[in-house]
Design a protein that fits this description.
The protein is α/β, with parallel strands linked by helices. The chain has a domain of about 120 residues: Nucleotidyltransferase, domain 5 (2-Layer Sandwich). About 40% of the residues lie in helices and about 20% in strands. The protein is elongated and about 70 Å long. The chain starts with a helix and ends with a helix. The N terminus is likely disordered.
Length: about 190
């Protein structure tokens, strides 16, 4: 049994130098930003994956990205840069160090992502493993977006989408015409 124990790896918890414990909100702008991601499921089985950056004082969503692929380290680095440019314009480095709080997702803890963050003046901090409440501000943002915006936006847009489908969307079986173009060509419905 000792041999098995000796070969068991300790679970990676991010290391003490980059772990965040405690209150997420801060009293001053641009002292801590948080980031996370979420998925929106589509009826066709695809998922839209969204990552975002929030300021932990004023809670502004400073930058976001969306993709139907996976969110990569390159995507997170673009997200970081977009947040910096949103708040400070085109600068090579932030005027003050800002904490960048995220979970332990591979796109956030990748060596290139952490190095890039430090190059531009962000200090990466991660939440404890399996502790989503440790980034509660980001989790609350996700709940709000899903509850108050995604569902409502779909309901509001549905008429427009169906109208577009009928008026514009080409169908091979209809000679690459939309349903309404096909109906108009035939004379009457």
């Amino acid at each position: 049994m000792k041999l098995k124990t000796a070969l068991t790896l300790n679970r990676h918890a991010g290391g003490a130098e980059r772990r965040h414990d405690g209150r997420i909100a801060v009293a001053e702008q641009n002292r801590r930003w948080c980031s996370d991601g979420f998925e929106i499921g589509c009826d066709n089985g695809e998922k839209v994956r969204v990552a975002f950056a929030l300021n932990c004082c004023d809670r502004e969503a400073m930058s976001f990205l969306a993709t139907t692929g996976g969110i990569t380290g390159d995507d997170v680095r673009d997200l970081m840069l977009a947040a910096v440019e949103h708040r400070f314009g085109l600068v090579n480095r932030l005027p003050v160090t800002i904490e960048w709080l995220s979970d332990n997702g591979s796109c956030y803890v990748a060596g290139q992502t952490r190095s890039f963050a430090r190059e531009i003046g962000l200090e990466p901090r991660t939440t404890p493993i399996e502790s989503p409440q440790s980034n509660g501000m980001a989790e609350a943002f996700v709940r709000t977006i899903k509850r108050d915006y995604v569902r409502i936006t779909v309901m509001r847009q549905l008429y427009t989408w169906i109208d577009h489908y009928n008026e514009v969307h080409p169908h091979k079986a209809l000679g690459y015409r939309s349903p309404r173009e096909f109906i108009a060509a035939r004379g009457s419905p």
